[in-house]
Amino acid sequence: MRVLLTGAAGFIGTATARELRRHGVEVVAVDLLLPEAHGEATRATPPPDVHVLDTRRAGEWAHLFDGVDVVVHLAAMVGAGATASDLPQYAGHNDLGTASVLAAMHERGVDRFVQASSMVVYGEGRYTCPDHGDQVPGPRTREALESGRFDNSCPVCRAPLRWALVDETAPFDPRSSYAASKVAQEHYAAAWARQSPGAAISLRYHNVYGPGMPRDTPYSGVAAMFRSSLERGESPVVFEDGGQMRDFVHVADVARANVAAALAVSDRAPGSHAAYNVCSGHPIGIADVARAVAAGLEPRVTGQFRIGDVRHIVASPQRARDEPGFTAQVRPETGLARFATEPLRV
């Protein structure tokens, strides 16, 4: 089996390339080495097996698709976006990059595609009221947040809503540049699958962490930010009350999910597109994440907030378990404790 892997030198890409090769897969590695994801050392001396190429110009290097069975597309601008000025970069690298890769695949007769999507396509998570069932809360107001009322309220009775697991049937509700681009990528994949025809899988990663994660930048994840605080001798800073629930999934499990999808997509019918949550299946509060990463150092819970942040987003792992057969192996409390001393990307 031969896989063309974009974003191959990145945090998730490096782990995925290693896992593919462990399964005896030949990997054609491509990465643009964007500064937002790669330090100066990596960009100055790229890995020798990586083709330094731009997915937005995939038509110019379409010969690399010859003989490829599956494309695993991880290359992207990541993070929520530092400012609205990032919009063109997300649209370019994520939207145009994906469209260009799919067009090159069509031209070269490659008809199997796996791509990285994200939990951010959902926006807010799923909420229930004990008395009124599933509810869709409105935006949290500045007044409520300033007064420390962080939980969403039932629109009927105003009681605090409880979080529930989000499955892949939840509607899209993108709330950032990155989220909008991930929704677009899924739509491109579905359109390509019908038109080409081909088969596509989109993997909705939840909060990925682990060795090789980029250091503290506007584009890195909260786990890396907590690590950076620890290295500065500072307590991790936690917004709101720290009770925000998330799913943290180890990068080794994400790599296993990518390989499972690459193997499974070969058996899917032409014209099909499926999406799967990639998560640990073990929800954890943000304050507990900070405690685990900070090796017992108590976090500083500030009550600060960002307008537009979601309160809870916790995934259901059931569909991924049932179909491509992926189940995470690393529980957050174990993986996050190890992450406290694991190397970060420089």
Structure description:
The strands form five sheets. The chain has a seven-stranded parallel sheet with strand order 3-2-1-4-5-9-14, with helices on both faces. A three-stranded antiparallel sheet has the order 7-6-8, with no helix packed on it. A two-stranded parallel sheet has the order 10-13. It has 346 residues and is α/β, with parallel strands linked by helices. The two termini are 32 Å apart. It has helices at 11-22, 40-44, 87-108, 142-146, 177-195, 222-231, 251-264, 286-293, 318-322, 332-339; strands spanning 2-6, 26-31, 50-52, 70-73, 112-118, 126-129, 133-135, 162-164, 199-205, 207-209, 237-238, 245-246, 248-250, 272-278, 284-285, 300-301. The chain has ten helices and 16 strands. Helix content is 31%, strand content 18%. α1 (11-22) packs across α7 (251-264) and α3 runs parallel beside α5. The model has no long low-confidence stretch (mean pLDDT 92). α3 (87-108) links the parallel β4 (70-73) and β5 (112-118).
Helix and strand composition category = alpha/beta
Helix content: 25-40%
Q: Please count the helical segments.
A: 10
Q: Which residue ranges are poorly predicted, with pLDDT under 50 across at least 5 consecutive positions?
A: none
The first-to-last residue Cα distance is 32 Å
Globular, elongated, flat, extended or rod-shaped: what is the shape?
Answer: globular
Mean pLDDT: 92
Percent of residues in beta strands? 15-25%
Helix-strand sequence: EHEHEEHEEEHEHEEHEEEHEEHEHH
The rounded Rg comes to 20 Å
How many strands? 16
**Largest beta sheet: strand ordering:** 3-2-1-4-5-9-14
User: How is the biggest beta sheet arranged?
Assistant: 7 strands, parallel
